[in-house]
Design a protein that fits this description.
The complex is a heterotrimer of chains A (about 325), B (about 525) and C (about 500).
Chain A: E1 11-19, H1 24-27, H2 34-44, E2 49-54, H3 59-72, E3 79-80, E4 104-108, E5 113-116, H4 135-151, E6 155-164, E7 173-174, H5 176-189, H6 193-203, E8 206-217, E9 227-232, E10 238-242, E11 246-251, E12 254-258, E13 262-267, E14 284-290, H7 298-305
Parallel strand pairs in A: 1-2
Antiparallel strand pairs in A: 1-6, 3-7, 4-5, 4-6, 8-9, 8-14, 9-10, 10-11, 11-12, 13-14
Chain B: E1 2-7, E2 11-18, E3 21-29, H1 35-48, E4 58-63, H2 65-71, E5 79-86, H3 100-106, E6 109-114, H4 129-141, E7 146-151, H5 159-171, E8 177-179, H6 188-218, E9 225-228, E10 234-236, H7 237-242, H8 251-263, E11 268-273, E12 278-284, E13 287-288, E14 295-297, E15 300-302, E16 309-312, E17 318-321, E18 327-332, H9 337-340, H10 351-357, H11 374-395, E19 404-407, E20 417-418, E21 422-425, H12 433-439, E22 443-452, H13 458-475, E23 484-492, E24 500-509
Parallel strand pairs in B: 1-4, 4-9, 5-6, 5-7, 7-8, 11-19, 19-21
Antiparallel strand pairs in B: 1-2, 2-3, 9-10, 11-12, 12-13, 12-16, 14-15, 17-18, 20-21, 22-24, 23-24
Helix pairs in contact in B: 1-6, 2-6, 4-5, 8-12
Chain C: E1 2-3, H1 4-7, H2 11-16, E2 17-20, E3 32-33, E4 35-40, E5 51-56, H3 63-75, E6 79-83, H4 87-90, H5 93-101, E7 104-108, H6 112-133, H7 137-144, H8 153-163, E8 166-171, E9 176-179, H9 188-191, E10 200-201, E11 206-215, E12 218-227, H10 232-256, H11 260-276, H12 281-290, E13 298-306, H13 313-320, E14 327-333, E15 336-343, H14 349-367, E16 372-381, H15 383-401, E17 409-411, H16 412-425, H17 430-438, H18 446-457, H19 462-469, H20 473-487, H21 494-507
Parallel strand pairs in C: 4-5, 5-6, 6-7, 16-17
Antiparallel strand pairs in C: 1-3, 2-7, 8-9, 8-12, 10-11, 11-12, 13-15, 13-16, 14-15
The chains are: A alpha+beta (about 325), B alpha/beta (about 525), C alpha+beta (about 500).
């Protein structure tokens, strides 16, 4: 369903899983009942779910929401709340679009359902530092989700209403699902870098560089939240800063591209994208950048998802 | 001295190595019973370079037996999978994504039971012992021959898998049980799949081990017997009976390591031109480049770490279709080449016949292919060359020329250089690179699981993991003084508190040679 | 024209410096250095051609190092110098980038102190041509002599002789470290931070000419004291002497701190002598002051005990101690790090509280990354008290180590004061008054007394009191509310709390 022309009754429900995709989610697999349970619980809170929107198109969550929509026999919006993958819920679009993420329903790996907030008071949690009305709700939910993830199996389903379908265009980042699937097909079929070039050109993206991973410093090691790796070949030296996602690329020390642009690190042979934790020393990679998908509130988006939101002290650079 | 043996689909190769020198080489056709081929190859070695059987320190065998059994869905045990997980994971039960013919071959049955742990090692729920007994009894009645047990986060805490093995051992004392935590790493489905594959190969593994043991002993060799593993290291034959899965795809690693040793080239592409297929891989600094994506084996997703190899369906036994256009493969006469090929008096035009006609090889009776049309021979060779060039090119990650090392019996079919790639190097003993790779193998120990690291204890935890890997290598037969950590990585798990870190350490060492010389040196 | 090679020429540096990216235009002999600049990691100063950037500290903005290398190249700056203690940060992608871009990156084997020492020496080297024009250079060199003098005193004497006035050296807003014969004290206002250049006529009718300088985080002042009616020329002369003298003094202090251990062991030796009372007090105090170890005046001792040895902890602690808004001393001692906060006069209670708060912040900051406990002793004056207070602080740190992570901070002040006051409560006149004070509680029952005592003992923590009493914290809170009502006391008031506490202690073992 195109979010810009959606006129149906009812609300769009955001669905996704918060937690660690590589570890816990690949071991303690979902039972499959989590998403329906979440939507059912939301219904009991008065949410009339008529469409599903992924929390984030990136990583596991993009597909998870599509699967959930199929399970629930609901349409899925060609949109998400992040335009990419983001680590913190208060970076997601409702947090700066005046839409509260509360009440939210969480379902953990044991199938236990939790409702966060929103029972009696419609008012947002007060927070003097918040500019938009619901940023504080986002922060509040983020902290609770984080605690739940730690206390339960390492991941938790998160769901909440993002408002009526007729007004959803003001909240979401549109057209990211089809864009992602288009790129998925392009990358799966890619045989060479030159074969990729026309697609990059068409969207204003570019190849930042290629070569082998010559050094790597994992995020989280030695307490640093941000890690990095370098890519070197005969040409310029690339340095990619990363946390769970790739955040910035410097070419020979000059910042060339930063979040919220989409930074992709591809296996140089198969052109399949690699996750930050899959980067290994001596691996051959290609680093590409694509312009970000933008919501209507683009300034707020760039601010919330730019380098500063990840604790990096420089301005956003978009391709 | 060591003996390396490679049992391939068409040929059984053997080498006798003294240190890093190849002193004798033998090549026989693979026989249906395997043993006869090995016996013949060992006799050939003895004839070429008489040796005292007591001087043999170790025999290393690489075999595609297990992989072939899986690919052909043949000789597999009736296998059940039990997963300890509930209430989690029910959406994707065991055997999800398995090809139907394999499920049928295994008479697959999957069972979910309460159990499992969280990443912290905390229990999800108690093990359902009564339920497990009931399942065990049902499986016994159904004639199940082998059982795979997996438990959520068993690499972090294996108590439930161990307990399940005890319970099943009481109910079904004769049915072997494979435990996932000993086989795979984090990633439940992939680990479970590997465990099921392992379970399905257990009966065959016992047969193969007995056969290998028998033939080697029959030759008077009392040295310990090892099998090559997927990563190019070896495992002793007793252990293989419990973990056949870890040896089932040793071919690529062996041929690439063998190619590196024989050619002395450390950065190159390697083409292993066999009887039915040709495998292309890349060597960097003497080590095979590993695949970054998950590996599918016979259509089953696993998370083995294997060399990044692509196979093309061209081998010495490939059928040549006269066209036009002339095409080599994908059909093949396989190990029947020695009966069906023209040069051996058969009636099928194969790639080998083309090579002999072109003067690139001297096998069989050359006069039997003299009648072949020159253009046909030329076109067939060009087809093979261009398809190899395409394959090597698709593996390349950097522009420029690089050498291609050709190994395997069929590598005579490769041209002097591959267009758009570089020169083709064919080292001495190229035909037996696999066996050489097996003979020079080391032993390894690996740790890969999630550790909870208390603040300030990162270094200590890493040291513990390293020690564990070293201990495992030594337990697997490495000489303690030679063990070194060759690969390690610690990846903090995103989104979780900083303490949860996945640590992977691999230690490798030289085989410890226990000199158990036979009292009398028997020269046959 | 001075080159990097010249600056690195002395064997001490040559052996310790590794120039990455050396070759081509980055070869040390080809790199021209016109200025040595100290840069704090993460900073964004504009660079100029010829700048050699000596980088202190680390930053969580890891990319900054790469950006710096790039800026060095783009600006034509001479290069970057870092110490091996920070190699983990600077030696990664930035080093690779330096190699690629042909930027000279000097990795100096050692700590930040070595960097400082290098910078000080390099600056002297770079200024040398201009200094030679100055008529005071000779004196400076004479003072310098062949070897580094053991104390700043003879150097100050040289300066003094040059201008015919007294010269002194002190810590900014802190104690006086050294001075020539005629100076006994320097007024606080002369030791305060100020804009360089202006002379100050202080309350004591003297004219003070001063030059501030920094070594590490420590700020010092070198000053001359002239008669109030000194001619303008004499004031100018004094100004030049202190300005150039400060370069020397900075170098002297940097050398002093050359290696943390050397300084640490020297400080420890002096401290041991001071505590043992074996050396003559006056010479000892001067030596201690030279080592940046003020023994006189008021102090608040503390002790930091890491659970396991942590390499480079000294630097971490020095860094964390910057939180404290006062002069601090830190030295390795007794398997941990001992130190104290220095006060020039008796600190007020409010000031003490502020400093203790700062120390607690130091603990919190450090404990985030390191398993460590911290004890704080009582404030006091003089060497003897310092010894006692350090021991007390260490005991407190040991006590703290038994607590839960993140709460390993204990102030011995409470223990010590209680001990003192308890002895007083034994005295005859106190008891009747105490009993009178607590009389209203008698109606409530004995558990109320115990509750109040436990509550006060645990510094007003209901949770801890509940643990001691084996009851629920809500019960404790309820009882305390009732006690407040019955006694009509304000437990938020320190004085009322103390009175109650003492009264409870005094009557504890007596029938009520």
């Amino acid at each position: 369903m195109d979010p810009l022309t959606a006129t149906a009754h009812g609300q769009a429900v955001a669905l996704g899983i918060a937690g660690a995709a590589d570890g816990p989610l690949s071991e303690q697999l979902p039972s499959g009942a989590e998403f329906p349970a979440a939507v059912e619980r939301l219904a009991s809170l008065g949410v009339d779910a008529q469409a599903v929107v992924p929390l984030e198109v990136g990583g596991f969550n993009g597909l998870a929401a599509v699967a959930a929509a199929a399970q629930l026999s609901l349409p899925v919006l060609d949109a998400d709340l992040s335009g990419r993958a983001l680590p913190w819920l208060d970076q997601f679009s409702p947090a700066y679009s005046g839409v509260s993420m509360l009440p939210a329903v969480l379902v953990d790996a044991h199938g236990r359902t939790m409702v966060v907030g929103g029972a009696t008071h419609a008012a947002a949690v007060p927070d003097t530092t918040a500019e938009a009305g619901s940023a504080a709700d986002g922060r509040y939910l983020e902290e609770i989700v984080r605690a739940v993830v730690r206390a339960t199996g390492g991941w938790v389903v998160v769901s909440f209403s993002v408002g009526t379908l007729s007004e959803v265009a003001d909240v979401v980042v549109p057209h990211v699902l089809l864009r992602a699937s288009r790129w998925g097909r392009v990358l799966a079929a890619a045989q060479s870098l030159s074969g990729l070039q026309p697609y990059l050109d068409a969207e204003g993206g570019r190849v930042l560089g290629d070569g082998h991973v010559s050094a790597i410093h994992r995020p989280g090691v030695d307490g640093g939240r941000t890690g990095w790796f370098t890519v070197s070949a005969s040409g310029p030296l690339l340095r990619v800063d990363m946390q769970n996602e790739f955040l910035a690329v410097a070419i020979d020390g000059s910042m060339a591209c930063t979040t919220p642009a989409v930074i992709g690190v591809l296996d140089a042979r198969t052109f399949l994208p690699l996750r930050a934790d899959q980067i290994r020393l001596a691996a051959d990679v290609v680093v590409i950048a694509l312009p970000p998908s933008l919501p209507r509130r683009r300034d707020a988006y760039v601010e919330r998802t730019g380098p500063a939101s990840f604790g990096l002290d420089f301005e956003a650079v978009l391709p | 001295m060591r003996i390396g043996i490679d049992v391939g689909g068409t040929h059984t190769d053997a080498v006798l190595m003294d240190g890093s020198a190849v002193v004798a080489v033998a090549k026989r056709h693979t026989t249906a019973d395997v043993s006869t081929g090995i016996r013949g190859a060992l006799d050939d070695l003895q004839r070429q370079r008489p040796f005292l059987t007591a001087d043999v320190d170790a025999v290393m065998v690489g075999t595609t037996h297990f992989l072939n059994a899986l690919v052909e869905a043949d000789r597999l045990a009736r296998t059940a999978a039990i997963r300890l997980c509930l209430p989690a994971t029910a959406a994707l039960p065991p055997f999800t994504e398995w090809p139907q013919h394999l499920r049928d071959a295994l008479h697959a049955s999957g069972h979910l039971l309460a159990g499992g742990h969280e990443f912290t090692g905390r229990r999800i729920s108690r093990l359902d012992v009564a339920g497990l007994r009931r399942i065990g009894e049902r499986l016994g009645q159904a004639g199940v021959q082998s059982i795979a047990v997996s438990s959520v986060f068993s690499p972090v805490n294996a108590e439930f898998e161990e307990e399940a093995a005890d319970v099943l051992g009481q109910v079904l004392p004769d049915v072997p049980v494979s435990l996932s935590y000993r086989i795979g790493r984090i990633g439940l489905l992939e680990r479970e799949n590997a465990t099921i594959i392992n379970a399905s190969l257990r009966l065959l593994a016992e047969e193969v081990a007995a056969a290998l043991h028998g033939v080697v002993r029959a030759c008077g060799i009392t040295a310990p017997l090892f099998l090559s593993q997927n990563d190019g290291t070896v495992m002793d034959v007793e252990t293989v009976q419990e973990y056949p899965v870890s040896t089932f795809a040793s071919g690529p690693a062996n041929s690439m390591r063998g190619a590196a040793m024989l050619s002395g080239v450390r950065d190159c592409a390697v083409v292993d031109f066999g009887g039915t297929t040709s495998d292309v891989g890349m060597l960097r600094a003497g080590f095979p480049r590993e695949a970054t994506s998950a590996v599918e084996v016979a259509g089953v997703p696993t998370n083995f770490r294997m060399p990044d190899v692509i196979s093309i369906a061209i081998g010495g036994g490939s059928l040549v279709r006269p066209g036009p256009p002339v095409r080599v493969g994908p059909g093949s006469v396989g190990y029947r080449l020695s009966r069906r090929g023209l040069v051996f008096g058969g009636d099928v035009l194969t790639a080998t016949d083309v090579a002999v006609a072109a003067g690139r090889a001297d096998i069989g009776d050359r006069s039997l292919v003299r009648h072949l049309d020159e253009q046909l021979v030329h076109d067939a060779l060009r087809d093979m060359a261009s398809r190899h060039a395409d394959a090597v090119n698709s593996m390349r990650t950097a522009p420029g020329e690089f050498p291609v090392v050709g190994v395997g019996g069929g590598s005579a079919l490769l041209p002097e250089r591959l267009e758009g790639v570089g020169p083709v190097v064919r080292p001495e003993h190229y035909a037996v690179a696999n066996a050489v790779g097996a003979a020079i193998a080391q032993v390894s120990g690996e740790v890969d699981r999630i550790f909870t690291i208390p603040p300030g204890r990162r270094r200590q935890t890493m040291d513990e993991a390293r020690q564990e890997a070293v201990d495992r290598a030594v337990a697997a037969g490495a000489a303690p003084s030679s063990v070194a950590i060759i690969d390690e990585d610690d990846i903090p798990i995103p989104y979780l508190p900083g303490e949860a870190t996945r640590i992977r350490v691999k230690a490798v060492g030289d085989l410890r040679i226990a000199r158990t010389r036979a009292p009398e040196g028997a020269i046959p | 024209m001075t080159t990097l090679a010249e600056l690195l020429h002395p064997p001490f540096w040559r052996e310790r410096a590794q120039v990455l990216g050396a070759g081509g235009s980055a070869a040390p002999a080809r790199v021209t250095v016109s200025r040595v600049r100290l840069v704090i990691a993460g900073g964004r100063e504009d660079l100029e051609g010829g700048d050699l950037l000596v980088v202190f500290g680390t930053t969580d903005q890891h990319w900054w190092w790469d950006a710096l290398v790039r800026r060095v190249r783009d600006s034509g700056a001479a290069g970057v110098m870092v110490c091996s203690a920070h190699e983990a940060q600077a030696g990664g992608s930035a080093a690779a980038l330096a190699r690629r871009l042909g930027v000279a990156m000097v990795m100096l084997e050692g700590s930040q102190q070595d960097l400082l020492e290098f910078a000080a020496q390099a600056r002297v080297h770079l200024q040398a041509p201009r200094l030679r024009d100055a008529d005071i250079l000779t004196a400076l060199q004479a003072a310098q002599g062949e070897q580094r003098p053991e104390s700043m005193r003879p150097v100050l004497d040289q300066f003094s002789a040059l201008i015919g006035a007294d010269v002194w050296l002190g810590v900014e807003n802190g104690p006086l470290l050294a001075h020539t014969e005629g100076v006994v004290t320097v007024p606080q206002e002369a030791l305060a931070r100020f804009d360089p250049g202006a002379a100050l006529t202080a309350k004591d009718e003297y004219l003070y000419v001063r030059q501030p300088f920094r070594v590490g985080k420590q700020r010092y002042l070198l000053g001359a004291r002239l008669p109030a009616d000194s001619p303008a020329e004499a004031v100018r002369q004094a100004g030049r002497v202190v300005a150039l003298g400060s370069v020397y003094a900075a170098r002297w202090y940097a050398e002093l701190q050359l290696a943390g251990q050397v300084l640490g062991s020297a400080r420890n030796a002096v401290l041991d002598q001071a505590f043992a009372g074996t050396a003559p007090a006056s010479s000892l105090e001067q030596r201690a002051a030279d080592l940046g170890l003020p023994l006189t005046g008021w102090h608040l001792a503390f002790f930091l005990a890491p659970a396991d040895p942590v390499p480079g902890l000294g630097d971490v602690l020095e860094d964390a101690l910057q939180i404290v808004r006062a002069t601090t001393v830190l030295l390795p001692r007794d398997g941990g790090w001992a130190g104290w906060v220095q006060f020039s006069s008796a600190p007020s209670a409010a000031r003490l509280q502020e400093v203790v708060r700062d120390l607690r912040a130091v603990y919190r900051k450090t404990a985030r990354g390191i398993e460590i406990s911290m004890g704080v002793g009582r404030a006091g004056e003089g060497v003897d008290h310092l010894r006692q207070a350090l021991a007390e602080a260490r005991d407190a740190a040991q006590l703290a180590a038994t607590k839960a992570a993140g709460r390993r901070f204990v102030r011995a002040d409470g223990l010590g004061a209680t001990r003192l006051l308890l002895s007083w409560t034994e005295s005859a006149p106190f008891l009747p008054r105490a009993m009178g004070l607590l009389e209203p509680l008698d109606d409530l029952g004995a558990e109320y007394r115990r509750t109040l005592l436990a509550y006060l003992d645990s510094s007003l923590s209901t949770a801890q009191a509940a643990k001691v009493l084996g009851t629920h914290r809500n019960t404790v809170r309820m009882r305390i509310d009732r006690i407040r009502e019955v006694l009509g006391v304000d437990l938020a008031s320190r004085d009322e709390r103390l009175a109650l506490h003492l009264a409870l202690r005094a009557t504890e073992h007596r029938p009520s």
